[in-house]
Prior knowledge:
Shape of chain A: globular
Number of strands of chain B: 0
Number of domains of chain B: 1
Number of helices of chain A: 18
CATH topology of chain A: Amino acid/polyamine transporter I
Radius of gyration of chain B: 21 Å
Order of helices and strands of chain B: HHHHH
Oligomer: heterodimer
Structural class of chain B: mainly alpha
Structural class of chain A: mainly alpha
Mean pLDDT of chain B: 84
Strand content of chain A: under 5%
Helix content of chain A: over 70%
CATH superfamily of chain A: Amino acid/polyamine transporter I
Largest interface: A-B, 32 and 40 residues
Low-confidence stretches of chain B: 1-8
Helix content of chain B: over 70%
Amino acid sequence: MKKWMQLALGVLTGVGGFFDIGNLATSAQAGASFRFQLLWSLLLATVLVIFLVEMSGRYAAVSGKALPDAIRERFGFKFWAGPFLILSFIHVLVLGAEIGGICFALHLVTGLPVPLLAPVVGILVWLLLWRTTFSTLENSTSVLGFLTLAFVVAVVVHHPPLREVAAGMVPSLPHHHPAQYWYIAVSIVGAVLAPYLFYFYSSGAVEDRWDKGYVGVNRGISVIGMGFGSLIAVAAVIVAAVVLAPRGIRVDDYHQAALMLTDAFPFWGFVLFAVAMGVACLGAAVEVGLSMAYATAQTFGWTWGEDLEPREDARFCLVYTAAILISTLIILFGVDPFKLTLLTMVISAAALPFVAIPFLLLMNDRKTLREHTNGWISNTVTVLVVLLSVVLAAVSVPLTLIGGS
Amino acid sequence: MRTVASRLGTGWWAAMALATVFLSCQTQSPEQVLLKSAEPVASWLATLRMTSEKWAANSAPSRFVRSTAQAADDSFEQAERDAEKGEASPAVREPFHRIFADSRSACDQLRRAAVADDRAAALPIARRLAALQAELAALRKANEEPTS
């Protein structure tokens, strides 16, 4: 019974954790500019993220170690120091994008300028991390994350052309703006395969004291949770395709996406969008802040744990405090949250080799994982992720130059 | 492991360098630059039109209309400036410049109506924005045809 509860909670976490500002921005942009044509990239990224999340949870359940901890232990600090610095930089940018998303959601409701809201939001995120336990954070943000299902309901209301939607699931070449098409495709992959997701998930498994008995639960959470999360992102693409594209609206700013639910829900659509955006970003901001602290503490071998009192793991708390402060300053100094989000997603995609290659090596460590090492399917997918990540790393920056908004 | 990583690193930088060389070799004619600057204007005109219609239908608050008009104005201003500074021939440039200026004027009209909370003005402004959208679309099509 306890494991069923864990599965249910894990699925909720998956749904809540999957859909964040990166998914919202890239989905809205994809649907508005290319209707259903980029759905394939979301599906591809979803399959890959399911495998990677499953592996990170399996490793944690069997070895009792989270990913950064395992990478440092297996390959040494010197090997991990470079990727760690790059991934920390990405963590700060993602946190800035999430804080910017919360600020924009509040801006929609209050009309106050986004930079002015940044300190309030920064303090809110920090207080959540400082005062609450891991399970409270996990469960509350996950349940609130269900508000993003408004996008799925909107799809039902709109009755999109199913044949066109299905056709979008198959990769195809763009009919116009090829650079922008590939730029958004890369951004979608970067948004779904966000490094923080794996570090947060595996560290969360250690916080929840998973053991080998949780391997099955982990598989269920990965498939159902990530699958449902992806469903919300797919719904956002479809809603943007049905509402924004026919009007000729291209999403280069969050203002251009804010009315996408008002055709389905004329009175509540605007508020629903603001609340869904705010809640999704708040959940993600908390996860990114924790992930940054987990990765840093595990890299340097410090005491860590969200359930510990701040005085027991002061350096762990200092890391998320500093990360929140820097990210808040980015928004306070007037950086456009939308542009920051897209740039961050592309940089995330470029940094994927640092995430994917250790997976391949760790998951084949027979000494630690024994009968739980990767099978040929998981290894094939991981090799695919590694190859894809190298290609993405090579093309992401040039695509930003020619396809970015 | 380190050798593989360093080889990947070399390949990545080589691809980046190639792409940068390729990009630097690509040049656009002044007319193409002008057409490109019209793309965000068309998108913002559509956004403002939808915003006006939703405001009229009580689906969006006045404060959102104000901030959207502000964001759109930034884009229109940029396009107007680009058109002024651009090297396209005056015969091509002037009609675009006029539409960009008219777009700014319609945007300001919407912003002022939102400040005054005058929802009755929303639909006439939406019609003005629709006319500008159609005019810009026709102009873009006319200037795209010879190159296609």
